[in-house]
Specification:
Elements lengths: L15 H14 L8 E2 L1 H8 L3 H13 L3 E4 L3 E4 L4 H25 L5 H17 L2 H7 L2 H10 L2 H24 L4 H16 L3 H24 L2
Antiparallel strand pairs: 1-3, 2-3
């Protein structure tokens, strides 16, 4: 109690730079660090109980993930989030998810299906409780369930780099429009059925519907004060 918070390399193999990036990035995602806020290396290092070197590397990781910009003579600042940013993100994310769903539908084996069913079970439980925070987190498990089936390291890297920006957009959307969970969940159920039926065309269409719904929610959330 009362001690200074620290960030350490984790037992699951993440190094210190990554652990710091995750901690700071989550604060950006949840709006605790506002767009335009300056992120001073010295202050972050002191607050996290680490040296400046790992903080500097963590900020570079966050810049790659589009949560931070590093500006000459100003240092790191939290990126702005506009409707145009949302459109750019979903113009890339929707085709990537369509590719992921299509390849999963083509290549799954029986042992690959339980994680996909678990995705829907977890989303069902979160929606039944009206737990927006849990539904938000579970929303990302579909891609994680598909990744081992597709087995494409390049696709994995693209999703890893885009997920923080997508989490930031969706966190703001779901906290303001929880009522959209029912429609979103219906399409997620349909998507998993189509993947397990090897219906690649149907899966691509469901991804398009889900992506466009999320885009609409994000743009609406940004338009609100």
């Amino acid at each position: 109690m009362g001690g200074k918070p620290t960030v350490k390399a984790s037992s699951d193999g993440r190094n210190l730079n990554e652990a710091i990036a995750e901690t700071v990035g989550e604060r950006v995602i949840r709006g605790e660090l506002a767009p335009g806020a300056r992120l001073l290396e010295t202050q972050l290092a002191e607050s996290l109980g680490v040296s400046r070197g790992p903080v500097r590397e963590a900020l570079r990781l966050l810049e790659k993930r589009r949560l931070v910009r590093i500006l000459p003579r100003r240092g790191a600042v939290v990126t702005e989030l506009s409707a145009r940013d949302v459109d750019r993100l979903y113009d890339v994310v929707i085709p990537l998810y369509q590719l992921l769903a299509e390849k999963t539908a083509e290549h799954w084996r029986p042992e690959d299906l339980p994680p996909l069913y678990t995705v829907i079970e977890d989303l069902n439980r979160a929606a039944a409780r009206g737990d927006v925070s849990d539904y938000f987190e579970r929303n990302f498990t579909f891609a994680r369930a598909c990744a081992p089936v597709v087995d494409n390291p390049l696709l994995d890297e693209l999703f890893a780099d885009l997920e923080p920006a997508l989490r930031r957009v969706l966190y703001r959307s779901w906290t303001q429009r929880a009522a959209a969970m029912d429609q979103h969940l219906d399409w997620m159920r349909q998507l998993v059925r189509q993947v397990t039926d090897r219906d690649t065309a149907g899966a691509r269409d469901s991804i398009r519907r889900i992506g466009e719904l999320e885009r609409e929610l994000a743009r609406d959330a940004l338009a609100r004060p």
